[in-house]
Structures are given as C-alpha cells and as structure tokens.
Amino acid sequence: MNYEDQINELEKKIAHATELKNKAEARLESLQIQEKDLLQQLHEMDLNPEDLEGEIKRLDEEIKKNLDQANQYLPKDI
C-alpha cells in the first residue's frame, strides 16, 4: 500500500470516527433532555430520585392491599 492509499484510508477512518462522535453527542444531548424532563416530573410529584425505590415498594404494597380487599368482596365459589 502506497502513501496515497494509506492517507485515503486514514481519511475514511477519521470521517467515520467523526460521524460516530457526532451521533454520540446527539444521543448524549437527547438523554440529557430526557433526564431533565424526568427530574422535572419527579419534582412535580414531590419525589426525589433517591426516594423512588421506597416509593415503588410503598405503591406495590398499597396495590397488594387493595387487591386483597377487593377479593374479599367477591364470591369465593366463582
């Protein structure tokens, strides 16, 4: 492979790397916007990200309790 071919190959690799970098930057920007939106939604619900696990557990227990109560009102023989 001569120098010209090597230079052309390097230019292709640089162009490809630049394209990948641009896609990664666009994806990062999109994810940052999504993160900001999610944090805003949490704020509107008076929740902090670090409280989510406990809140999910609380809601899960509440759902289970409500389902148990609803099942008590249904006839057992159907």
In short:
The protein is mostly helical and about 80 residues long. It is built from two helices and no strands.
Account of the 3D structure:
By secondary structure, the chain is mainly alpha-helical. It contains two helices and no strands. It has two domains: 46 residues; 31 residues. It is 81% helix and 0% strand.
The shape, in one word, is: elongated
Q: What are the secondary-structure elements, in order, as H or E? A: HH
> What is the terminal-to-terminal distance?
81 Å
Q: Beta-sheet strand percentage?
A: under 5%
Number of helices: 2
- The average pLDDT score comes to 95
What is the share of helical residues? Answer: over 70%
Question: How many domains comprise the coordinates?
Answer: 2
Largest sheet: none
Radius of gyration: 27 Å
Q: Helix- and strand-based class? A: mainly alpha
Poorly predicted tracts of residues: none
Number of strands: 0
Q: Main traits of this protein?
A:
78 residues, 2 domains, 2 helices
SSE order and pairing:
Elements: H1 3-44, H2 52-72
